[in-house]
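Board notes (copied after class):
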Amino acid sequence: MEYRLGNSLRVKSRGETLETICPCCKKTVKFGVFSNFERRLAAKITLLDCNTVYFLVCPQCASIFTVDEEIGDDFKKGNKFAITDTDLLKLKKFKDNE
C-alpha cells in the first residue's frame, strides 16, 4: 500500500532544451521541460520515496518524453547541454493513489 504526500500534481516549468530532434515527428525543436515532484510513503517498507519526474513536450507534435532524474537535475542546475535526443525516454504511467 502506498500513500501520496502533498500535491504531486504540481508541475513546474524548467525551461527549454537546446535544439534537438524529436523521435516522434523527426523535426528539430526546443522541447519544453517540466518537472513534477512525487513523494510516496510505502506502508510495507515504511520508507519515504521521493522522485522528481522530468518530462519534455515537443512543440510540434505534442509528444511527451522523460529523462533520467540525474539528467533532469543537471539541466535544472543550468546545464543546457544535459539533455540530448539520445536521452529521451518514453514517459511511464504514474501509479494510482490506491
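Comment from the instructor: The beta strands are 2-4, 11-16, 20-21, 28-29, 32-42, 47-57, 64-67, 89-90. The radius of gyration is 15 Å.
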